[in-house]
Amino acid sequence: MLIIKLIPHIFFLYFLKFSIANDHMYLKHSCSSNNTFTPNTAYQSNLHSILTTLSSHAATIHFYNTTVSATAETVYGLFMCRGDVTSDMCQECTTIATKNIASRCVYSKEAVIWYHMCMVRYSNRYFFSTVEEWPRLNFVAYNVTRNVIKKGSYGFLLANTLNDAVTEAANMDPLGNKKFATRNVTLSGSQKQKLYVLVQCTPDLTSQDCKRCLSDIMSSIPFCCLGRDGGMVLYPSCNLMYALDLFYRDASIAVAVTPTSLALDESPLPRKARLRLISIAMVPILFLLMLFFANRIRQVNELRRYKAILKENFGNESTTLESLQFDFSTIEAATNKFSFENLIGQGGFGKVYKGTLLDGREVAVKRLSKSSGQGADEFKNEVLLIAKLQHRNLVALLGFCLQEDEKILVYEFVPNKSLDYFLFDPQKQRLLSWLERYKIIGGIAQAIQYLHEYSRLKIIHRDIKPSNVLLDDKMSPKISDFGMARMVAIDQEQGRTNRVVGTYGYMSPEYAMLGRFSEKSDIFSFGVMVLEIISGKKHSTSYQPYYVDGLLSHAWKQWRDGAPFEILDPSLHGSCSQTEVMKCIQIGLLCVQEIPDDRPLMAQVISYLSSPSIELPFPCKPAFFIHGGMEINMVEMELELDCVAKNFTPFSINEMSISESLPR
After folding, report:
1. pLDDT of 602-656, one tens digit each?
2. Each residue's pLDDT tens digit, 343-399
3. CA triple 212-75-116, angle to 5 deg
4. Distances in Å between the alpha carbon of 32 and those of 35, 39, 614?
5. Is 611 exposed, middle or buried (CB count within 10 Å of its CB: 0-12, 13-18, 19+)?
6. What interhelical angle do 551-560 and 519-535 show, nearest 10?
7. Residue 140 DSSP SS3
8. By the number of CB atoms within 10 A of the CB, which of 20, 128, 249, 482 ranks highest?
């Protein structure tokens, strides 16, 4: 009986000691690499002063922010301890953090460091009372979830519990130096297993900002942490943690464990009896320790294997992509195990499913075919490119899954399908008014300009076509499918490839025949699409789309003969602005001119679209244009063909990746 009483107390004391020893466990730090100061300057002196001030205040309060501006080099700093720690622990953690942030972020003007029990941050810019979400830390328990939480109600229970805690923390009085809350709830189907959550904001935030910061973290849980025993997401302004084991300090439990409660008997035991009891008690403790360390080793190996997969696929970019990683079980649950009812599209690289995440957001899930090697290349290219792009007319990549042989991309869900779904259907094209078509042309132009001029590196899409333009609930366009895109330096005018990819009918001549691509290649594709939007007719799906009877030739001949409105979609007659239609036809023909330098830049196109009085240049004949009819200038045709032949570089058709312009 004595042994049964003794083992739980010894076991509890061991893990209480283990927990306390890890209270100051380092988690992560972030330093500004492009915002630095030189040694022995006023900023270094002010930084040393502010770090000393922060550690000295941690003995009495859990949060403190201050400013040191003895010179023009102002430094702003703060610390925040977790709401459940004691004052001594807060001061000890803050002291360690202020020392380590100085040594880890040498000469950085802006830095943040997280420990298990505290956070320290400084900057040369004012950041108090402001919600800041970057840099951030996602940390998960890498073991697979226990069977007890594999019920469908678990996700909703977690969301509801977090919502209650967020509301309590956001509404706390900031004068108490805490916006902090914990919650625990028993899991359905289990009498003992509980879920524990903890949320906290910096107290200088308003209630509304605190709730917004924590709600944003909640929306990121499906990307990083769902499907694990526990998760932790740390922002500079707020943090959230949850687990199936108690990880924060509960006063009621701490008080229960006292020396008096460990007293087993008032009468002393003989020495041999005491040794025997200790030996018997140590056996299960050592066994549990062995299980703990074995599980820990397995977790570390899983983490290494996961990072190795990321490194193998994405190289040095792998560390910046970890926060976008989805757990496969999360995606499987969102798509109802990739059910046929959720299937919304299918292409050469795989299938696309509609899904709903835990927080209610709808997503499009692109599951790449396991047998498609080309799909794997597209997957890497798309993750590396779209993850860095943000524009209202580009489909947002929310994350990806790279697990064993699964390669999955998760995008925002765009409800109205692709442009070709409406444009080339005789019935559905009536749903596209001229006002909407004009807006679509302008939105596509702005997205291409962003790719060419405003992203960090110039991006050539190489496959702009109606099936790669999705329409949201307001019929605004969003360019998608960046698997064939190429990134070039800002000052690089063109690139060259031996492997031509794209869709016949939308490729510029210099790219289709010579493998030369540039922003003018995308502008050519844009011009073809503008003429398709105006006419409601597909350029061509044949392998000779540019010749004689193609849309480009037809539009040029009508323009040349003074009858440009002959190409207008009949459903638009009488309900469109003739000035805008004329302008767009002229823009389309300018973009498909044979010589790349004659085509306008996208900034010029946007200027043409937005300026009602601007005079547009007169377009030259489109690329690949050959005169129809019997009266043909054979000399001119011979010269044109001779020019094409002279610049033509032979290539093998097996080296080309060409897709037909078909609906998804």
Report:
1. 999 999 999 888 889 999 888 664 443 333 343 334 434 443 443 333 333 233 3
2. 988 876 788 999 998 878 899 999 988 766 556 667 777 777 777 788 899 998 888
3. 55
4. 5, 16, 45
5. exposed
6. 70
7. strand
8. 482
Structure tokens at 186: 């028993």
Expressed in angstroms, the distance from the first to the final Cα of the chain is 71
**Structural domain boundaries of the chain?**
22-128, 152-250, 311-413, 416-624
Q: How far apart are CA 56 and CA 115, in angstroms?
A: 18
Q: Does domain 22-128 have CATH number 3.30.430.20?
A: yes
**Count of C-beta atoms within a 10 Å radius of residue 379:** 22
Length of the chain as a residue count: 664
Q: Is 109 annotated as a binding residue?
A: no
Q: Which amino acid is at 96?
A: I
For residue range 390-428, list pLDDT tens digits in order.
889 999 888 888 877 788 889 999 999 899 999 999 889
C-alpha 93/C-alpha 117 separation (Å) is: 7
Cis-peptide, bond into residue 135, ω within 30° of zero = yes
- Cβ contact 452:459 at 8 Å: yes
Extended beta strands in 202-256, E state: 231-234, 238-243
- Kind of pairing, strands 657-658 and 501-502? parallel
Q: How many whole angstroms separate alpha carbon 229 and alpha carbon 146?
A: 7
Q: Catalytic site residue 463?
A: yes
| Catalytic one of 463, 481, 522, 569 | 463
Say whether 152-250 and 22-128 share the same fold.
yes
> What CA–CA distance (Å, rounded) separates 123 from 493?
39
315: phi > 0 → left, psi -120 to 50 → alpha, else beta; which? left
List, as one string, the DSSP characters of 40-72: TSHHHHHHHHHHHHHHHHTTT-SEEEEEE-SSS
Contact present, 113 and 41 (Cβ < 8 Å): no
In the structure encoding, which two tokens stand for residue 112, read together? 């943040």
CATH 3.30.750.24 fits 152-250, yes or no: no
Domain 311-413 belongs to what topology? Phosphorylase Kinase; domain 1 (3.30.200)
**DSSP labels for 313-356?**
HHGGGHHHHGGGBPPHHHHHHHTTTT-GGGEEEEETTEEEEEEE
Q: In this structure, which topology does domain 416-624 adopt according to CATH?
A: Transferase(Phosphotransferase); domain 1 (1.10.510)
